[in-house]
Fold DUF397 domain-containing protein.
Amino acid sequence: MDVTTTPHAVDIDWNEAFCSEGANCFRFGLDDSGRAYIGSTLAPDEYVSDSVEALRALISAVKAGAADHLL
């Protein structure tokens, strides 16, 4: 997993942001090579990137309760 805080030469196609209460907004995106990205609208130049498979595994784990202790 890569954490980036500086702009890349990568063109990321961001989906519409998902916002919960209090305008905490996250967005998901893909680049031309198929890497997946998760970012916050509060820090548009910062994001986490990994493979699409890793993003699928993360979402499945969260849905299964792996992050429930953070709620």
Remarks:
- The chain has a mean pLDDT of 88.
- Residues 2-70 form one domain.
